[in-house]
Design a protein that fits this description.
The protein is α/β, with parallel strands linked by helices. It contains ten helices and eleven strands.
């Protein structure tokens, strides 16, 4: 009788231990699953440095979220989203690369915001400063190659073409233009002396000590430079996407954007 009681007690103990361990394992699995939520953010190349710094801070504060950035030209990113790429948020460097996604219902207007502004600048290799002094001097014949982003897909290239056209320089320079896939490639070409000059955003020029800004395009020579951001409607991580969308509008995030030269739009 006593042996039977001992066996019952032992069975109950083992059962309880199993349930406890199983419960703990479930808790750990749930916690681990919670920590593996990955947000995919397609963002303009010019945002790379600011968003990388924001990522470090954000992931410290939100242990369950990992940010994965897909940086590129806004037009190319727009096309990827239209073709069904699995993206949670889109951060564009131009309204006209963002608005079609709203019009097609891929982004809710109520879950989007014009967040940042920027400026367009002319840069030259630092060791060639003085050869080209401003935008008008591009027409003097001293330049052999000028790099700009492809105007069809790259906002900085689009704004650059508008500025050159406004200054009556586009026709004169068109045969000397080297087109790039995004604004960071323009910066690279100028840094390595592959071209005589390039047109980039001010925020891109500021991160390099190998180039010199020689002129800033007047605001009336191109469309307003506006960076809209929005949540993709079919995101599978709506709560986490909304949390990050709200975070990049906070004071902490704004300070980082301003540190890299962006203007905060009201």
């Amino acid at each position: 009788m006593m042996k039977h009681s001992i066996r019952v007690i032992m069975s109950m103990f083992l059962c309880a231990s199993f349930l406890f361990l199983f419960g703990c394992t479930n808790q750990e699995e749930k916690q681990e699953a919670k920590q593996t939520v990955k947000l995919t953010i397609s963002a303009a190349s010019s945002l790379q440095d600011a968003l990388t710094e924001i990522q470090k801070q954000y992931e410290k504060e939100h242990k369950n979220i990992k940010l994965s950035f897909n940086f590129g030209s806004s037009g190319a990113l727009q096309q990827q989203i239209e073709q069904g790429a699995p993206v949670d948020l889109f951060f564009s460097a131009a309204e006209d690369k963002f608005r079609p996604l709203v019009d097609k219902g891929l982004i809710n207007k109520e879950e989007s915001k014009n967040l940042l502004g920027n400026e367009l600048v002319l840069i030259v290799p630092k060791d060639k400063a003085g050869t080209i002094k401003d935008f008008p001097s591009l027409g003097d014949g001293n330049i052999k190659q000028l790099a700009i982003g492809n105007p069809e897909t790259t906002p900085a290239g689009q704004y650059g073409k508008q500025t050159l056209s406004k200054l009556n320089l586009w026709t004169k320079l068109e045969g000397k233009i080297v087109y790039t896939k995004d604004v960071r490639q323009v910066l690279l070409y100028v840094e390595t002396n592959a071209v005589d000059a390039g047109i980039v955003f001010k925020t891109d020029a500021q991160i390099s000590d190998k180039v010199k800004m020689v002129d800033t395009a007047a605001a009336n020579t191109h469309d307003p430079i506006i960076y809209p951001v929005g949540i993709i409607k079919n995101t599978k991580h709506k709560t986490e996407a909304t949390t990050f969308y709200q975070y990049i509008q906070t004071k902490d995030a704004r300070q980082i954007f301003e540190k890299y030269g962006f203007k905060i739009l009201k």
